[in-house]
Each structure stands twice: as C-alpha cells, then as structure tokens.
Design a protein that fits this description.
Blueprint: H1 3-12, H2 28-35, H3 37-40, E1 44-49, E2 52-62, E3 65-72, H4 82-94, E4 99-105, H5 109-117, E5 121-127, E6 131-136
Parallel strand pairs: 3-4
Antiparallel strand pairs: 1-2, 2-3, 4-6, 5-6
C-alpha cells in the first residue's frame, strides 16, 4: 500500500453510524499506525478494481493462523460486494495459510452474516472498544 492510499483511506473514508466505529480517526493509535509506512510494513495491501482503490486487506501471522483485517470503501458497503472481496483475499492467503481468523464488532451483523456464509465460525467473544467476535475458518 502506498502512503497516498493509506492517507486516502484513513482521512477520507467515513462510514455512517453505526459503522463509524470503523472510521480510522476513532482510534488515534490505529490511525497513527496505519499512517506510518514502517508500521504498515509489507502486510497491508490496497485492493483495486482496475486503478480504483476499493478496499484494503491487513494480515498478521498468529501462530499457524493468519489474522485478517478488512475494509471496503464506504460507498461500496452494503451492496453485496463483500463476498467477492473476501473470497479473493482468502484465495490469495490460502496459498500459504490454511487457518484464518478475523475479529468483528458484534453489532456488525452484516459482516458476521458474510463471514459465516463463506465458512467462518464464531470462536470466541471478547470485550474491547465494542464487544467483538473472533471468527475462525
């Protein structure tokens, strides 16, 4: 991911409530890390449709599993496009990792439904900023 793309995502992608929880400026620590090229490292990817930035994917190895962080441009959410994005990310990662996890806020029923549809199952529920669900594939 380029610095310009990181800035575009973190400073201009604004989700409507209740999804505003995912706006980058909601968590100063996450925002600083996302904007820092060294912090992003080689494990944050921009996702494009031709030349248009439409999403991002963050991955972090957790033992034998790969933990996913996903974000789609706000104007593209809620239109049924998430399955294509998630399946492409999973296909990309399955070359090296069979096990995958992700976390999602419990209020985000839309995302949980998608994750379950592609094979993720609830592993654990824990409290952070919002109560979150850890899901495993």
């Amino acid at each position: 991911m380029s610095q310009q793309e990181a800035e575009e995502i973190s400073l201009t992608w604004q989700y409507d409530a209740p999804y505003d929880f995912y706006n980058m400026e909601e968590d100063e620590e996450d925002l600083v890390a996302f904007l820092d090229e060294k912090e992003r490292g080689e494990f944050v990817f921009s996702v494009k449709d031709e030349e248009e930035l439409i999403a991002f994917l963050m991955i972090e190895q957790m033992g034998d599993s790969m933990d996913l962080g996903l974000g789609m441009r706000p104007d593209l959410t809620g239109q049924g496009k998430g399955a294509t994005f998630l399946k492409a990310a999973m296909c990309f990662l399955r070359k090296n990792y069979e096990q995958m996890t992700l976390s999602v806020a419990t209020f985000n029923k839309r995302a949980i439904k998608l994750y379950k549809r592609v094979g993720f199952r609830t592993s654990r529920i824990y409290c952070m900023k919002q109560t979150e669900v850890l899901m495993s594939l």
